[in-house]
Amino acid sequence: MSENNKLTDKQDIRLIIPLFLLRKLKEHTLTSGLYPISLGKYSQSGNYQISQQPDEQYSLIYCQFGQGNLHYKNKVRTINRGDLVLIPPHQMFSYQGKSKHGVYWINFTGKLADDFAERLLMKMDDGLAHVGIQSNIIADFDYLLNLGSRGYTATNVIHAVHLLQQALSFLALQLRTSAFNKATNFDLEAIENLMRNNLHQELNLDVLAHYSQLSKFHFAKKFKELTDTSPIQHFINLKIQQACFQLDNSEQTIKSIAETLGYNDPYYFSRLFKKIVGMSPKQYRDSRHHQ
């Protein structure tokens, strides 16, 4: 990318996807699920307005800095740094940015747009939530906005579309994790760090629940709500991930690796490994030479 094409915090940009490309995006199997219609970034001082008449598309706004006002459903709400707005199709709204205020905006649609949006809206307050400043989301949006300068080749467009899907999925994950932690004081990252620091031994449900200051029942229930797996199975999965790393990057015997992960019976370890990975530890190690 040339220096002239790079976005800076002082640039405003608007990208309208041309009709010929929209038709291709709608029909192509790799892009028809979700794709942008238009997108942009406002970063300069001065007032501006984003508005949307009833249409088939979703409208997303992400506040990078400053403050603005959202007029939606006969209410006016203040939008602050790190806030995310998502307006469903067929809804009128307007957004006024104030001086020294910057936002990204994207209008998107597609066969899977409702599914992607639902993952966000279910954790939002009538289309509004705080996700904080996420550097990877800002980088993804800037990359999307440079699509025009990179050219509308199939490779560029398909990559951009999947980058948008990745960004929406990440934002949904952030909202889910944030809402869960706020409601329950449940720190998943701290629990996973405890697990990773104790891969060499056994951690039972009593220890994990005590660490989280919850009963075993409530700890297991909340953990599964957030990860879709039980805490003990998650711990075992982390052990097997570490076993794979050691098999790939060391010449330790399988017995030795099993022992470093708290399994004194190498046969039990091998059966467990095969159940999760689909092949024995020996087969896994041998397979690295046949990729």
UniProtKB/TrEMBL annotation:
<dbReference type="InterPro" id="IPR020449">
    <property type="entry name" value="Tscrpt_reg_AraC-type_HTH"/>
</dbReference>
<keyword id="KW-0010">Activator</keyword>
<dbReference type="Pfam" id="PF12833">
    <property type="entry name" value="HTH_18"/>
</dbReference>
<dbReference type="InterPro" id="IPR018062">
    <property type="entry name" value="HTH_AraC-typ_CS"/>
</dbReference>
<dbReference type="Pfam" id="PF02311">
    <property type="entry name" value="AraC_binding"/>
</dbReference>
<dbReference type="InterPro" id="IPR037923">
    <property type="entry name" value="HTH-like"/>
</dbReference>
<dbReference type="InterPro" id="IPR003313">
    <property type="entry name" value="AraC-bd"/>
</dbReference>
<dbReference type="InterPro" id="IPR009057">
    <property type="entry name" value="Homeodomain-like_sf"/>
</dbReference>
<protein>
    <submittedName>
        <fullName>MmsAB operon regulatory protein</fullName>
    </submittedName>
</protein>
<keyword id="KW-0238">DNA-binding</keyword>
<keyword id="KW-0805">Transcription regulation</keyword>
<feature type="domain" description="HTH araC/xylS-type">
    <location>
        <begin position="189"/>
        <end position="287"/>
    </location>
</feature>
<keyword id="KW-0804">Transcription</keyword>
<dbReference type="InterPro" id="IPR018060">
    <property type="entry name" value="HTH_AraC"/>
</dbReference>
